[in-house]
Amino acid sequence: MEDEIKKQKIQSWYQDHSNGIYRYIFMMIGDHEQAKDLTQDTFLKAYNHLDYFQEKSSDKNWLYRIARNVTIDFMRKRKPIRYMLDSFSAVPSRDLSPEKILELGEKEKQLYRALGQLKRSYREVIILRKIKELSIRETAEVLEWKESKVKTTLLRALNALRTKLLEEGYKHETI
Amino acid sequence: MKQYDERTEFDQTFQSFESIQFDERDKKEVYTNIMNKIENKPSKNRFSKWSKHILTTAVVAIFFIVGGYLLTDKFIMDQANPTPLDENKKTIQTYLEKEFTGPNEELSNILDNGIISPEFNAYREETYGDLVANFKNMVNLNHILVFLIDAHMNGYQLNPKTIDIQEIEDTQNNVYNYKVEVEYSKGNQVNTATVTGIINLDENGKISMIRKMDGRELLEKINQSIHTTLKEVETAITEQGLELEEPDLPSGNAFIQELNDVSPKAYFIDERTLSIYEFPTVQAREKGMEDFEEKTATMRLVPHETYTNKNILVFYVEGNEETNNKIKTAITELE
């Protein structure tokens, strides 16, 4: 593909998806500066691998998949031992909520903290389905899971989240 | 049911995370970095010399075009709108007035023909399109014409008696609390109910999100007139010549679980499970049904019939055709 066309594509994708990609990464790692860097890496990777993009999935799903890989790589490098624990069991991932979460309010802070204590697969399925509002099919594509696995994992993840919140005395309030 | 309420509440809190912004400054900084890195990357293309010049020119051109546009936009917009705060409040005020006034004759006529029509879509888009950042999203999240549809269905007229909009300070975004005292009237009867919520606006002053909206009181009041009781359902079924027997059910039965905070009354008809849910409102029943679908999404359910009417939801499991038809008649005729 011509470099100029590739660049135009990246420019247009950046325009359309950079906010969403940033937010996804930020929700996964809770660090604004790192999320910025990883957003940058995501688009650079997309540019470098654009020749391999086969348009089997949508460009948005492809970008989220790259963002996910970039984020997981980052988490592995940052804390290799904690990453392993994080993949298998629930351990507190962040003790302090980032500023952007604190600004949103108490409930958001509690929810974010509980989310950070879930294992990674639970956290990502909740972020993609509930916060990014990707469809089941899109989530399945990004995570490279079957749709049925997305459904069951999401239900389990929500149950785990509920348990965590109750343990921490989440204030119940009906709508 | 408590579980369901909590999940609904999570959903609203989840939505709040959507307001986390990638600041414009950071966005531009990352964009420049990406472009610089792309520029400096040695190209494998044999036309690399040419493309490098073209790319550099393009970046410079984009920089000037985008920069020029932003500057012009800022100055022109600043001059035209000296107080964006007032403009934001005005946008919210207009949205709330539209949401809580009427339905007028035009909307009533459209609603009489059902809500799945091109006219209805056109009306919604024309009325709200300019106020919101993402119209489709707003419709999907049920923030458009929620109250007026119910008011129309139940013969009510709505009127916003007072609208109070307050900016929430110490936030980076444009976030406002709102409180509307809504008059709902039918004939000579006039009552009021309060609706509250939080509205976020994007950098262009368009409504980007509505959260923590509490319009339960108003919705319950205007839907009260179409409430059917459990007793009425029981009577309608027995009038069809069916006998409601005491059930003997395992506790794990999917058809007798709590849905949206409501436990059903369960019976046997011909030794098959019949469960009747009496929800407080039609909306609660719809949520109850969603709850059922979500909870049973991964289960293999035995054949069953589902009957709904107004606030009532009924399941009958593995029934024969004759009984199914009788129950269907009983529920349909609950008008």
From TrEMBL, chain A:
Residues 110-161 form the RNA polymerase sigma factor 70 region 4 type domain. Signal peptide: none annotated. It comes from the Bacteria. Residues 14-79 form the RNA polymerase sigma-70 region domain. GO terms for biological process: DNA-templated transcription initiation. GO terms for molecular function: DNA binding; sigma factor activity. The keyword Transcription regulation applies. NCBIfam families: sigma70-ECF. Belongs to the sigma-70 factor family. ECF subfamily. This is RNA polymerase sigma-70 factor (ECF subfamily). It comes from Salirhabdus euzebyi.
UniProtKB/TrEMBL annotation, chain B:
The chain crosses the membrane at residues 54-72. Keywords: Membrane, Transmembrane, Transmembrane helix. This is Uncharacterized protein. It comes from Salirhabdus euzebyi. The lineage of its organism: Bacteria, Bacillati, Bacillota, Bacilli, Bacillales.
